[in-house]
Amino acid sequence: MTGPETTTRPGPAATAPWTLLSGAVKGVAKRYSQDRSAALSVAGGRAIVLAVADGHGSAAHFRSDLGARWAVEEFTTCASTFAYEVVRVGDDAAGWTALREEARRLPQQVGHRWHRRTLLHESNSPARGDRRLRAAARTGPAERPEPPDLAAYGSTLIGAVLTEHMLFCWQLGDGDIVLVDDGGAPHTPLSTGPDMGDETDSLCEPEPWRKMRSHWQPFTGGAPPCVLLSTDGLSKSFADHQGFLDFATGLGERAAEQGVAAVQAQLPDWLGRAAKFSGDDTTLVGAISVPPQRSDER
Question: Which among 162, 218, 215, 224 is positioned nearest to 190, based on CA atoms?
Fold first, then answer.
């Protein structure tokens, strides 16, 4: 179900040549979701920006819903500006080198903006009381105050910028990006292999951009018909990774056969069942290319 758990407006949103898909459900035993997401078109519909963030949600990360929200907001701000440049360059290969350099700088821009926003909130409302004042009372004013602990806001982040000519995507921590090609084959360009449990990289760490993985892919035969981003609550609901990939392929096939509106209508039920198996918040956003015969369903 969509709603407070996601920043994306419910229902499929049309943008040539893609339709946007979004859905989110909270974990079965959770009071509220720690996931946040966004799916939007920019540059007159010539580019798509997708993002999902998963707040860690444990007792040590009790403000991670804020961290996830700010992660999505800061990423979409930076990525939207970048998307305009990607559209401007288009298929001019001479400009791709500069784009790749900008793409490499984007994680640091997002990280700085997220840290600055989190530090402002922390300075006004310390998560664990004013530790610096307590430390000064114990050791005296000559002691250097310890740096703020931002673990309470910890969150992962996955984002993508898609145009008809290329895809840029970035990932910090767990979750999945899946591209489904014209033949229905799924690709996971930023997959890290087997799940390593609950440990994951986080925006709350010092210089998190150094751990952010990235992928750049130009399209010579056209953009993939299906690009999906999801938090790890979805992939964890399957017995193995192949089951998750089969789900992504099946979603793309249903969109081609039935239209994206039909898939959007069924998505809350699918994600709800996934959340029951994983026990975790489950969020998915995507961009799907709609065949001309299905355009009336958008």
Answer: 215
Is residue 272 within 8 Å of residue 28, measured between CB atoms? Answer: no
- The residues that bridge with 15 in the sheet, in sequence order, are 18
* Closest by Cα among 87, 26, 81 to 57: 26
What is the three-class DSSP state of 149? coil
Q: What φ, ψ does residue 102 adopt, rounded to 5°?
A: -65, -40
Q: What is the pLDDT of residues 120-171, one digit of tens each?
A: 999 898 877 655 444 434 444 455 556 678 999 999 999 999 999 999 999 9
The mean per-residue pLDDT over the stretch 176-180 comes to: 96
DSSP 8-class letter at 128: T
Give this prediction's pTM: 0.87
**pLDDT above 90: percentage of residues in the chain:** 70
Residue 204 backbone phi and psi in degrees, to 5:
-75, -10
Tell me the C-alpha to C-alpha distance, in Å, between residue 4 and each of 26, 36, 157, 242.
Answer: 10, 9, 18, 31
- How confident is the model over 18-64, as pLDDT tens digits? 999 999 999 887 788 899 999 999 999 999 999 999 999 888 889 99
Length of the chain: 298
Let me know if 244 is exposed, middle or buried by CB neighbors in 10 A (0-12, 13-18, 19+): buried
Domains of the chain: 13-297 (3.60.40.10)
Residues 6+ apart with CB under 8 A from 59: none
Task: Supply 93's token pair.
Answer: 């290969």
DSSP 127: B
* Predicted confidence (pLDDT) per residue in 62-89, tens digit: 999 999 999 999 999 999 999 999 999 9
